[in-house]
């Protein structure tokens, strides 16, 4: 059990490509942190630098307070679950799970005992004598988790562990992960590109983009108060609607003369980007004129895409019994309590909607 | 309809060509077998009678009970095995580095190694003889095996690189996280997984060494050092027609290990040990 701290970690490659740009992150003891971001944002690199598989260019990595920069992966006492599972094909499941313990010199009988116990927790006891080639994707995934868990490391690292599973299996493994998290609370860094995984499993979410950390916070805080335009657009599906607007005495005016009331003090006349989630906008008798473009009924709700007079697309999450037809002209109203204001130049959130 | 007809015709052509090729390669072998099971009297009949009237295994018996033949066979195996082992020992680290590290000039070096393969040993034999003479290594098995080894290295490096390339890097990274040192990773994970490739390279080197003639012919002139290939040649050169059947039997016995090894090689290549290493 230990906390994990990254301080100003930089990672650059040969021709000045920056993979990690001053990444600083504190993970508390037993905290489950999920790093989420688009591909190439540096989330996997962050994980591999923590594991010691890749070397940081500068900056410090501390596990349990001790700087581990110069330690080889095996000496850092971390366990990692790889995206492709990386099971040793020439060993049985038991051999795979016990390998790390054996290499650390634990007695055979004790290893056997530990492997058996982990296998029981993961419900793979009957697979222990098989080789990875004879396992299904979900079973391999469990073995990979077992190999990490059996070591009882200071830190768990997960590199997109569910991305190779089919949708149904992914949902069940997600709840399984949550169960294991309760069963064995350990400091964890979990990397994924799937925001659903991030939202459902994380104690705190780290949103990364082009080598930088954009925001760190509990899932709902990130959803409710995105720190900037990138986070606002990345978290939430469909993405947050963003419109150019100008601040007025009482709110903001969107092109097309629609006024949205906002509370709080503001610089009148300032150009801003107004953001609001699809659930915060709905058709009304008056408001912003728009035309229905497409309707996507997905069962419990309908995702409707509107087009404003200025040509901006606005998506909305509406009840399933909504009566709208494509091409229909309507007015839209925005729940101003849920509106976000961003600086169009820096992308940073301005505190006005809070 | 016509499409299927053409396909049939093409199939037929394939078989015809294959049969011609088989005949071309099998005929000398069968002829050898035919000679090896004849009595001296029937040898004189030559090609007139392909299947002898009185087939006999006496020739094999005589060859196999001959003490010097056993020695030649052992010399041949010893040279091949030493050469193949040596080639493997040298090629494994080279191939591993080529597979896992990227450095400037890597591909040029790989091609350079292959170029060595293109130089015929014939060209090298005279200088090689003089080197070995100067080093006092003529008439030693070490020298001959060393040349076998050098000749086997280029192909071995290429083969082993391919088999290292097929091992996912994440396996080695997993081993590192599991607490293996680089040497431990190589020993516990990489080499066991490259075993089929290493075995293939070893057997291929054995086969190449087994059919090696010029190198031992030039470097080893003392009778008791010679491998079977050279010994048979000397035997044939000194022999009268009355021992043709013995020569043939010796040749058949010499060819057998190569065929056996080749069958083993095939099995190894098909071996599917890598299946399931990563997501299937």
Question: What does the model show?
Answer:
The complex is a heterodimer of chains A (354) and B (280). Chain A is α+β, with helices and mostly antiparallel strands and 354 residues long. Chain A is built from 8 helices and 21 strands. Chain A has a 6-stranded mixed β-sheet with strand order 6-7-8-3-9-10, sandwiched between helices. In chain A, strands 13-12-11-14-20-21 form a 6-stranded antiparallel β-sheet. In chain A, α3 crosses α4 (137-149). The longest helix of chain A is centred in the middle third of the chain and has 17 residues, at 167-183. The model of chain A has no long low-confidence stretch (mean pLDDT 91). Chain B has 2 domains: 2-36; 66-279, MetI-like (MetI-like fold). In chain B, 77% of the residues lie in helices and 0% in strands. Chain B has 280 residues and is mainly alpha-helical. At the A-B interface, β6, α2 and α4 of A face α8 and α9 of B.
Task: Briefly characterize the structure.
The complex is a heterodimer of chains A (354) and B (280). With 354 residues, chain A is an alpha+beta fold.
